[in-house]
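chain below, 647 aa
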Amino acid sequence: MVLRKHELEAKLKDDIELVRSGVLRDENPLDLSSEFNELLQACRRGDLKRTQELVSAGVNINGKDRFDYTPLIIASLCGHYELVELLIESGALAERDTFQGERCIYNALNDKIRNLLLKYDYSKSTDPLQPWAAHISALLTREAPKTSDITLIAASTSFELHKFLLSARSPYFQKKLAEAPGLETWKLPQSIPVESFQIVMRYLYLGDIPRDLVDPRSSATEEEVLTGVDKISKQLEIDKLWEAILSGGDRRLARQRHQDEVNRAQGQIEGFFQEKVLGHKMVVDTRKAQEVKWPHDNSIFADCLLRADEGGEDGEDVDKQEESNGIPIGPGAETQRQNGSRKARKSVLYPAHKAILIRSPYFETMFSSVFREAQTAEHLHVIKIDCLPEVLEIILTFLYTEKVECPLELGLDLLYASDMLFLDKLKSKAAVAISTLGSGNNNVLIDRTHAHEDENEDDEAEVEVEPINVYDVIHAAWDLKVQRLEEFAARYLAYRLEDYIDEEEFMELIQESASRLQTREETDTIELLDDIRYYLSERFRLRFEDAGLDEMMDENGEISATAAELLNSEANGIMTGDRTDDGVVEAEKSDVVSAKAEVSEALTMSGGVVRTLDGELVEDEFASDAINYQILLQKIDTMLEKLKLDA
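prediction:
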């Protein structure tokens, strides 16, 4: 243990010296910007929605404040499990054997968070681009399905490469291929060793630079290979290659150089994607989408077209409607008659590259099989994807760049589309977007049970618009087996239960949850209802703990009958100082009187009155909470009786 401590201290000193000298970057740089400070505040509060928005906006989640606190350390220290999970999945550093990593684990509020931090390895927590870079590297040696479109020949060795990648990564290839997009083979000069080309191609395809630059069986010397690398790198205008070669002896420096190159490559391919793929998308009439003809020798080097249709009726129905003597047919008929005409449905076509699309097992199978899309044709195949164009753009952006920015309104559509394409990481990102952006301030308790009456009671109450349809979310969670969304939906419902408990659709949801057990026994519980009860208890327990009233909760997490009676029928007696001979009740009164008095005084000064969910007037919000909790539990029991369910 002592030896390990000395090793860590020595390693830390070496790292500090390398950072000070500018050789190594500080992985947790000081950040005093207002945006970073807002991120730290959101992490303190446990505000999932605001944290997600700031992360999506590009705020550095691995920065630190003047006290050396990172967002992950703050969230871990404050006990926000869901927020810790979000930060790690977004690339927050949690690597062990580093100062900040060990500090984060040591300061975790509870073992649940500590175990979460420990289960993430380096590749998961600090290198979010690793799967993307690994796919690019694998293209260099991948044989099936065939995605290469140009062959470089050097002596007896040939390299099967991809024009779009060469054009994005090298200014030389960009100009060369722009002049001759149909080029299929290119003979390389024999004066340069094959090993030199191999090193350069590995670099362009984000592979590691080998320590042994020359194969022992090769006739070329290391000096000849390096001279060849120098010539090629200058011709292709890739000046960072030498830095990668020179850093090969230092593991951490080599890792930093590789990460820099991956980030640079991501920017280059993103630029190509924005300009060529999104910049050349076509919006056409849905009826004519399959008639689009694109040649193979195109300047974008695309080898297929992805089609997504705008929302509305199916393409065949459009034809039928327009052939029915101009008479609108279907659910939108009345609107069409009012407008006097109907807008033709549109489809969007995106030129794409099979080499990138095969990141999805769906496309990999399609292009490796006997399906029509895998066969050679005169023009590019048009492949229809069953999703909206906006969703397809998110999918393509992820495949090309690993970036995901999903607005809440497209979250469920993206969830289903990514499940169809077997993109598990994108599916997880969609679930994160729904559970964070759709939560509001879910971790910060929102008081939805207190109705204050004052002199302005005639004014219209401001109605809160729910950001999502929680029924759709829970059904998606069940259909696609997304545990994260099941937990989110249960928590969402529990924190807003008074708005849903009396709805017919809520009762149907509980009935459906009960029926998910094929052979239901009397002793079986209802999973969704169990989760709702748990989060309902958490919701009110948090308020009681904040007020120092957690002693009112019994061992089952429910408010004791004595405490509930105290807060309801005897509230006025407490505030006026009335005494009772019951020693147990008197003790409970003394525990809560100070907190109640403070809140009641504030309400009295503002002229406010608090009502419970059943409309009864109570002295203050603490009494309201105790009674509302019991009311909601009773409503659950009443609902179960109606459904004839035991839970």
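The mean pLDDT is 76. DSSP finds 31 helices and ten strands in the chain.
thats it, cya
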